[in-house]
């Protein structure tokens, strides 16, 4: 059984990390840039959900621009209570503070297990470990949750239900921004039965943060992700080949496009490559809620967005279950899974 990262970080007198956590840095990697730090698009959800036709039309246009230029955006005025968001973060902290034996009750083995917790990404296959513990469970179409700590399940169910409403409204706006009917994506990807995954990440203080990584550069396998954190920075986004520190807005969601969005839009909206760093002083926690198609849905470019002469299909269609297994059982780096279904032009 792999030692949890929390256990390792709390080892008395720990001043260096084991070699298995030491990443070799790419000498050609661009330095962190502050060029785009304050320019990440912000979408006012209230105008999308209940604004006038003119306001909604403008927000749909802004949404499309954010999708095409960034692959991500911040969402404000979304209606999920700040108190619930804080309670969810605190409940996740209580989970990670459970005794290791209690957490082991929820240790799964397969990527499609409905509930699992562990360390790194895939402790059995990772050649270099990530400075991270995680909790994952399916929140839709069937809700699964750990039974501990007390009250966790109730908070998680409320949070999952409310964030789903936000995500589905965003999907309608994104669909319209592509020139499709509002309900097109939801229907085409059978999102009524869509897979919703709750992932909480725990990054404890690291004695050598310059050598370790919380998560590698990657894109999410789903359609889109709603992300929050506990106020400790560490999320970085790749933008025009440069890495950008993302400073979250209080009580806002960071919305990140995943692989299925790039596939479905035939490359018009690209997924966002991102990573997590660690620090030497504070524990960072994040909660990512991933929204994807139904597992048995075959996802390919929307026919309405394809023209065989001027805009041919850029991706091979694949069942979402197979795609998820492909991404989760291989080395996760960049857009590695997406590249496997990409159709290379001759």
UniProtKB/TrEMBL annotation:
<dbReference type="InterPro" id="IPR027443">
    <property type="entry name" value="IPNS-like_sf"/>
</dbReference>
<dbReference type="GO" id="GO:0046872">
    <property type="term" value="F:metal ion binding"/>
</dbReference>
<feature type="domain" description="Fe2OG dioxygenase">
    <location>
        <begin position="193"/>
        <end position="293"/>
    </location>
</feature>
<dbReference type="InterPro" id="IPR050295">
    <property type="entry name" value="Plant_2OG-oxidoreductases"/>
</dbReference>
<dbReference type="InterPro" id="IPR005123">
    <property type="entry name" value="Oxoglu/Fe-dep_dioxygenase_dom"/>
</dbReference>
<dbReference type="Pfam" id="PF03171">
    <property type="entry name" value="2OG-FeII_Oxy"/>
</dbReference>
<dbReference type="GO" id="GO:0031418">
    <property type="term" value="F:L-ascorbic acid binding"/>
</dbReference>
<keyword id="KW-0408">Iron</keyword>
<protein>
    <recommendedName>
        <fullName>Fe2OG dioxygenase domain-containing protein</fullName>
    </recommendedName>
</protein>
<dbReference type="InterPro" id="IPR044861">
    <property type="entry name" value="IPNS-like_FE2OG_OXY"/>
</dbReference>
<keyword id="KW-0847">Vitamin C</keyword>
<dbReference type="Pfam" id="PF14226">
    <property type="entry name" value="DIOX_N"/>
</dbReference>
<dbReference type="GO" id="GO:0016491">
    <property type="term" value="F:oxidoreductase activity"/>
</dbReference>
<comment type="similarity">
    <text>Belongs to the iron/ascorbate-dependent oxidoreductase family.</text>
</comment>
<keyword id="KW-0479">Metal-binding</keyword>
<dbReference type="InterPro" id="IPR026992">
    <property type="entry name" value="DIOX_N"/>
</dbReference>
<keyword id="KW-0560">Oxidoreductase</keyword>
